[in-house]
Amino acid sequence: xxxxxxxxxxxxxxxxxxxxxxxxxxxxxxxxxxxxxxxxxxxxxxxxxxxxxxxxxxxxxxxxxxxxxxxxxxxxxxxxxxxxxxxxxxxxxxxxxxxxxxxxxxxxxxxxxxxxxxxxxxxxxxxxxxxxxxxxxxxxxxxxxxxxxxxxxxxxxxxxxxxxxxxxxxxxxxxxxxxxxxxxxxxxxxxxxxxxxxxxxxxxxxxxxxxxxxxxxxxxxxxxxxxxxxxxxxxxxxxxxxxxxxxxxxxxxxxxxxxxxxxxxxxxxxxxxxxxxxxxxxxxxxxxxxxxxxxxxxxxxxxxxxxxxxxxxxxxxxxxxxxxxxxxxxxxxxxxx
Length: 337
What we know:
The protein is an alpha/beta fold. It has helices at 37-44, 47-57, 68-83, 95-103, 108-131, 156-162, 199-208, 218-223, 304-312, and strands spanning 8-11, 23-25, 88-91, 139-142, 148-149, 152-154, 180-184, 188-193, 212-217, 232-236, 240-242, 252-254, 268-269, 283-286.
């Protein structure tokens, strides 16, 4: 797209920090004590664009709190769609995700966030009408995951610390002398080993931990597309999720409702196996290149990239994972797959 001198825009789109996007407000958070949100955002985004948008619409924000942050992002995106008319625009709205984490998947707060999301999408569509680009615009509304309600946490690193397999810090993290270490993905977790031979004992411990649904070995995890360097991939039962924490009273404990909203304290999480029952997300397509009134019963998240590439007319030198959703696109042929 850059070679064709096409303008692009992204608003809190994941993994775009430092990207060569024409108008970029990157999703990034400070993770070092010597920096702050303003500095990391300026460095990761298009600085002049970020400053201009914040000058015009910064009054809508309350830091990075929701739902105000999505109000700010929507205003910036509407402004950009109307006045800059990017060829490709990526917009990440997080309000509903945040409310599901805090209050639960089908809570009143999540439902209210869904209504706000609907209104924001309407404003974005209206912006293309006002800009005169609606008739040429293909829209894709998608979620990157669903969520499951939880009420218990599993602290595997606490179990490993009890056995001397790692050393906890006073802050509840892990020193670098570990032999066994768990890295959470919320509904599942990776387990890594280093200079550790007793895999049978480790696997038994994992399988006997309350709330664990399944333990997959390295070969099985790699075949599913997981990190090939992990020793095990562990799946939680519905209602449970993993943390990276140590210095906890128990390996498995209930989530204190008063702690919800604090780091790693949730009422709804994602990160489970995609094959978990009733665990789906959504893709809605509309526009001049999209067939009308089509329903595709099943697809995978990795099918989105080749489908979007087909919509954009973008070709890659190597085949992408997944398959183009040909049944959704006008004029698509199996050569695109």
